[in-house]
Design brief:
Blueprint lengths: L1 E6 L2 E9 L2 E6 L2 E7 L6 E3 L14 E3 L6 E3 L3 E2 L9 E2 H16 L22 H12 L3 H5 L3
Antiparallel strand pairs: 1-2, 2-3, 3-4, 4-5, 6-7, 8-9
Length: 147
């Protein structure tokens, strides 16, 4: 099957090789192209697609698992200097911290009895729960407590 595609500002008659893969002829040579699954941009092998076929504008690498993902499936940095993290690693980090918090002693007023992370002794556990929900975009009861 042949279709017309636009690559680097020019139109080419392209032969379909497989899903998201085409070949165009330039100076008698077949040049294979991949299509970004997010934005539809055509890329040569030199330009390349990352992960499951996303261009550099649509892909991001997770600093924890070092896999490429569609940028829409990543948690963007909240502060300058931070890196992208995939949603899976982001949730693993939240669950790890939640387990750590479970080992922190509390008093009868439901406040932590020792300093923990950026929270001072005497911080209400409910304030920490709200921090979890804001920082990790989750619901403590559903996502961390399984209620």
């Amino acid at each position: 099957m042949y279709i017309i595609i636009k690559w680097q500002g020019k139109k080419y008659l392209a032969k379909m090789l497989e899903n998201y893969k085409m070949a165009i002829s330039i100076d008698g040579k077949d040049v294979p192209l991949d299509q970004c699954r997010q934005c539809g941009r055509w890329l040569s092998e030199d330009e390349g697609c990352y992960g499951d076929g996303y261009c550099d504008g649509c892909a991001a690498i997770c600093i924890h698992c070092e896999r490429y993902f569609n940028a829409k499936n990543m948690v963007p940095p909240k502060k300058d200097g931070e890196e992208y993290v995939c949603k899976e690693c982001h949730m693993k980090e939240a669950k790890k911290l939640w387990a750590e918090l479970g080992d922190i002693p509390t008093n009868q007023n439901e406040e932590i009895d020792v300093d923990w992370k950026d929270f001072d002794k005497g911080t209400s556990i409910y304030d920490i729960w709200h921090w979890f929900e804001e920082e990790y975009d989750l619901t403590v009861a559903k996502d961390l407590m399984g209620i």
